[in-house]
Every structure is written in structure tokens, then in C-alpha cells.
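Class prep. Write one:
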Amino acid sequence: MRQLYVIGIGAGDPAQVTVQAIEAMRRVDVFFVIGKGDAKQELVEVRTAILAAHVDRPYRTVEIPDPPRDRVVGDATYRGVVEDWHERRAALLEEAFAGTEGVGGILVWGDPSLYDSTLRMVERVIARGAQRFDYTVIPGVTSAQALAARHRIVLHDIGEPVHITTGRRLREEGVAPGESTLVMLDGEASFGTVPGNDLHIWWGAYLGMPDETLIEGPLRAVEDRIIRCRDDLRARKGWIMDIYLLRRA
């Protein structure tokens, strides 16, 4: 493989794919897809639909099984556990790249720069030295942008910062005064752990997909409704992908 494109494809709506992304996809001979198992097969199907809609030349697809992420690796910290997972993913990518002719491509949900490990894995493959190629990153519409657009809001208040974090960090740090907090990768509805009656939440699940669901309101008034909705959606689909913004009134 002489060239790799890492292409952001938006939050799930095929119409969010940029012209630049379409042009890159039309140069690709082999697309590498990291599978998430049967429960998340819908994610693979969305990628397939995007390719069918926008690519007008022959290509092939190589699906790579995603290794499970161990919760504990010896005495490793959280960072160590994730580093171990990335190393195993990089080894699978390296194996898939071997012997590939032409131009490769990886389609990334949202944008490759925001809570995605693809670029780190690509750098690991290059550092191993067995595969030599150049790569180009194509930006995409993030779930943060999609959330703001669907709720018709600005992510930060006038003159204020916006803090992007995870559910794990939200549980540890809470919401800072005078700061809007955007939370991703939260499998535990961590907004319920944040104290105070002055918080407002803008929540969205499966943004850009047919099952897109939005809830907004004072946190203490809508948190139970969001939790019930998350549980129902997860039970029906087998997985949940959501994001939310918290801001003090």
C-alpha cells in the first residue's frame, strides 16, 4: 500500500459526508473496516451505504475484528489498558495492510481528531517499520457539531470556554463554574452524578441516523427520562451512542 486515507464521514447521516471526503473515497482501492461485532453491525451497514452512495469505481472491503478492550492489564492504569488495546488493534491493521496494492482507506465516525484512536494506530503501524506508506487525514462533521445543530444551540456561552470530556472524567471532576461541558463516551449516564439544581442538558443519541433521539431541559427534570430512553434504546438495538452538553443556568 502506497497511500492511506483516513476519512471522517460524519456522525451517521450520509448527507454529512463532505465533497473532500467523497473525492478521497473515490481514490481508494481497499477500505479497511474495524468491526464491532454483531450488536453493532449497523455501524458497518452505514459505512457500506455511504460507499454505495458516493463511490463510483470498483473497490474491495477488508473487515478487521476489533479485539476486546480488557478492563485490567496486570497493574496497568486506565491509560495503560487503552495503550494495550491500541497496540493489539495496530497489530491487526498491520496484518491487513500487508500485501495490499494501491490506495487504502479507513472511514472514521465523526472526525479522526476527536476521541478516535485511528491515527494513533496508524502511527503505531508506521513505527513498527514493516509497512511503509504515506497517509492523509480528511476531516469530518463531529457528533459535537451534529448535537449543536440538532438542538440549534451554540456550544459555549458568550466569552466562555467549552470543555470536551468523557463520562469517566465527568464523574471525577464535575462541571466547572462558567464552563459548558460536552460529554462523550459515557456508558453510565454520568450526568446523574453531577450535583446541583442549576444544570441544563442537551442530549442526543444516534445523531444523523434513523433512530436519532433528542431530549433537552433542566437536568434534574429530565435526567430520569433520558436514562429510561437510553435503557430502552440500548435494549432494542444492543448498543448506544450518545453525547450531551451540560451548562449551569
